Amino acid sequence: MSTATMERFSVSRTLHLARWNTVLLVRNRLALSYALVFPLVPLPMLLLGDRGSSTLGISAIGGVLLLAGLFPVFYNVLSQFVSRRDELVLKRMRTGETKDGELLAGIALPGILCALLTCAVAVPIAIAGGQMVPVNILLFALGAVLATVMFAAFAYWTAAWTRSAEAAQLTSLPVIVLASVGPFVGGLPALSENVREAISLTPGAAMTELVRVGWFGFDGFEATTSTLSFAETWGLAGQPLLVMLVWTVIALDLARRSMRWEPRA
Length: 265
Prior knowledge:
Layout: H1 3-8, H2 11-27, H3 29-36, H4 54-86, H5 89-94, H6 100-128, H7 137-159, H8 168-171, H9 173-185, H10 193-199, H11 203-215, H12 230-236, H13 238-258
């Protein structure tokens, strides 16, 4: 990116747009509840089984991370972008000083902050529910940040073929299924090693693996005891972090190639 391009990007305009989108999100109580409350729904699982069970902990905490990416970020950004595109808001704003990157960041930031807030709140709740203190809380935080960026990229990619905000209920399904197959299917013991390896390359499976490694310090899929130190978790986190990064780059590239700023004919 050139210096001139960097100079054209205005942080102040981006934050102004983000504040404006935050106000709209707060006014929509249903969307706000989906953003702040729904991602925490998996946490009561910690009280339904054996207190301190790592299996329940991985499912619950991984579920929070997944839902925080899907609802405050992916679905919220998708519906907001498509709605503003259909109302010609984006077209009008692009005729002024506002740059494309500022528009995209301004739409995504409120959902990203909501997602990171729910992930932060989940930490003390999970510990109070009997789960161990995270071995590497920085790795968990890094995974949460990367997940939000990844799902924002997925949202802008999906917006390319979404005709209306109502249609987003259907067009969002491929990404939701792609993200959910790992956590819901990847843990089945009957899966062959080849199938498990393939599933590990999906976004949701990578996020779950980050929880296993970063929070619980587990070394391998079948591990049930924390054996990794803080430093060792960084080494094993390389693959899931790379998987999430690759998906982010793919989604951003596809979004860039297919982005539509005006309503579809």
